Structure formats: structure tokens, C-alpha cells
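Please produce the structure of this protein holding manganese (II) ion.
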Amino acid sequence: MKDYIESNKQRFLDELFEFLRIPSVSADSRFKGDMLKAAEYIKRRLLEAGLDSAQICPTEGHPIVYAEKITDLALPTILVYGHYDVQPADPLELWDTPPFEPTVKETPAHPQGAIFARGACDDKGQIYMHVKAIETMMANNTLCCNVKIMFEGEEEVGSEHLATFVKENREKLKADIILISDTSIIANDIPSVETGLRGLAYMEVEVTGPNRDLHSGVYGGAVANPVNVLSKMIASLHDAYGKVTVKGFYDKVKELTVEERDSLEAAPFDEEIYKKDLDVDAVSGEAGYTTRERASIRPTLDVNGIWGGYIGEGSKTVLPSKAFAKISMRLVPDQDWEEISDLFTEHFKAIAPPTVKVKVSRHHGGQPYVTPMDSIGYQAAYKAMEEAFGQKPVPTRGGGSIPIVALFEKELGLKSILFGFGLDSDALHSPNEHYGIFNFFKGIETIPLFYKHFNQLYNG
Ligand code: BES
Ligand code: MN
Ligand code: MN
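Below is the modeled complex.
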């Protein structure tokens, strides 16, 4: 199989580049046509790889691409999930090379080169590994599991229509395990398998003061300024210990045992390098927890955007009528995103002074998720990583969210294996996103090993 990958290396890369050139931005309706193009592209490549019945399933939003290869009903079935949509590339001026013109450059973490493009790592590069891994297994007659593919186009905007698709296609999606490459490993020489994802509750608030923008000299000082008020309210959402003050926020948080915390802390991590990479002199967060714990096993609250008043060129002396913020919370087991959204809404209204009116609305959310390490899925992932990297992988807990994963468990009764190959430093969602060429090919090499070990553990 390695020979096949080696002799098709350039073609695999060329195809990925072609895929990355399609600006499949799900959040922005101007790219609706490109979303369809990306779906068509991946469908065509799935057919070429040897999968059957590749189809584009329309939804009320962006389409889902589905394909399968059922060779023998006695074999276990792997359902591969991933997303072909990407985050908006803005701010464009911060990219060193154009986001939809893939360019290879070396970086300290990627001495063998990395592909710079929006979606290179999250998640087009990673789903393409699966397409090429399946092609490789089929060409070498080593496909030892049935496979179903489900690539969606709305992961970056909340997976609303995938949820409906899953509920309506329970039979079609029947499988033994879900395999997802949309997360990270610790480093290219330190393989790891993520065993959890955080949930998410995404809110938007609107604070209204006077019924119109006012002259800040004529009225300033006498009428509450909603931008000032909102800033104060936001500041009060954390206490001096970095704890979120929303009433009831921590009530359902399951504390980890000392053993669990110690074992996660045993994974290599260098806080100095971490700070240097981000160019910050100090880290910050909830007292009593380490940097990694703060970014994985603990819930958080962050402002994602804030606006109001005059932000154009020059100055304008205005007392604005309205102020807004987008606020998201990352959640951990057993917090429930709908309950947390309600708690936030109540709390935010309760802390508003009588000088303003407050509106709170909900965007989207998802539940937190954990993979049981004693399952054959996790064991297969572990063995595959160990065999491919020549080193035992480290279990880690991820800080990001893939909201649909908890829904898969609820609706399909299936656990997901987080089998990602990116690095946290690959600038996902940021300018200059990239994906290591090493990582891309390592993924293509490791995925068939998962199939092999999953088949063996399933039968044994
Ligand atoms: N692939 C990421 C999630 C991720 C990244 C998990 C790194 C673990 C490590 C995914 O595409 C993503 O960005 N999810 C969003 C959630 C969504 C509702 C916008 C997130 O985590 O913000
Ligand atoms: Mn992703
Ligand atoms: Mn993402």
C-alpha cells in the first residue's frame, strides 16, 4: 500500500489543490455556487476512488455528499464523517498567499512543507485523506470493512440540516463506528488520539439605551451609553478567579478524578513554546487549572465579537443607541447547551441596569462528547497510530467542538473516533491556515491501519 501511495503522491496533492481552490465558505451566501461545486468535486472523486452510489443530497442549506462501498454484510461498517465547508478567509490582507490558491511553504513545525490554504487542515485536507485512503485500499484489494461516507457543507455554521438528514436516514447510516478526521495530534513526532470534544452554546446580545444616536456633548453624562453598559456587563461575566459568573453555570460540570487529570497532564506540553507561538507574555484563565485543562476539560465563556457606535474613519462624537456582542460558551460533560443558553439569557437580563433594554438570542449549539477508551473503536485508533508512527499515541481531550458528534450518538447510537492529523498551530480559522504534507500522507497511511485493526478487534 505504501508503494501505491508513493507512486501516486503528486496526483493526490494535485487533486487536493484543485479541491482547495474552490472557495467553499458556508457562512457567506455569495459562495453558494462554490459550495455546490465543492460537493460535486468530492462526489466525482469518491466515484473515481471506487465507491458506489455517490450522491449529492440536497438540504435546505448546503448539500451533503454521501457514498458507500458495501462489500460483505459480515464485515463491520465504518461511517466516515467530515466537512467540505470552510470558515470565511477574512481578514484577507493578513494572508501571505491567497487563501484559495494553495501554496507549499516550510514552517518550523512542518520542515517537509505545508499547504497554505483556507480549509487545508479544517477540513478539506483531512477528508481528502479518507478519499485517497479508500482508493488505496480498493486498488490493493485490502478494503476489509464496509464504508459509508457522509461529508457535509455546514459544519462551520452549526450543522443544522445535517441533524435533520441524520434523523431521516437512520437506516441508511447504520454502521458500527463513526470515524472523523477533524481534530489534532500533539506534534508530528508525538501521535495522539482525542477522547473528547467540548460542547458549545452561541449567543448574541443587544443592549439598547436611548431610542436614537445622540450628541455626546448635549446628552453625554446624563443618559446611559449602551456601549459602556455592555462593557461593564461583559466584564462581570468572570470573577477575580476566572470563573464564569452565570448562575448555575458549573452545576452539572463533572469534575475529573485526580487520576484522570494526571493522565491527561502526562502528555507533553511546553508552556513557554505555547506563549511564544502566540506572542503573549502570560497565559490566563480559571484559577486552579493548568493551561491545557483550561482549554479542554473546563467550560469557558468568550466574547467573539463586539460592536456599536461609530467605527468609521476619523471621529464622531456620538452617544450610540445600541451595542451588540456575540458571546459563546464552550461546555464540558454533563452541561447541556440548551439549559446553559437559558441560564445565560436569564443571567444577562438580570444583570442589566434599568437604564437599558436587553435582547438575548440564541445562535446554535451542541453537546459535549467523550469517546470511551475501552471501546474497540478507540483501541483500533490507538493501534493504527502506534503502527504508523512507531510510537504509542497519547490520549488527549480536545477543546474544539464538532456539535453533530453528540447528535450522532443520540440518533444513531454510535460512538465517534476522533482520528485527526492536524496540529493546533496549523492556524485553523485564522489567516495562513495550513496543513503539513507529512500529515496529509501520514493520514492516508494510517487510515487503512484503522480499518485493519477495527476489523480484527470486531471479530476477536
Ligand atoms: N475541526 C473543528 C473543531 C476542532 C478543531 C476540534 C481542533 C478539535 C481540535 C471544527 O471545524 C470547528 O471549527 N468547530 C467549531 C464549531 C462550530 C459550531 C462552528 C468550533 O469549535 O468553533
Ligand atoms: Mn473542522
Ligand atoms: Mn472549523
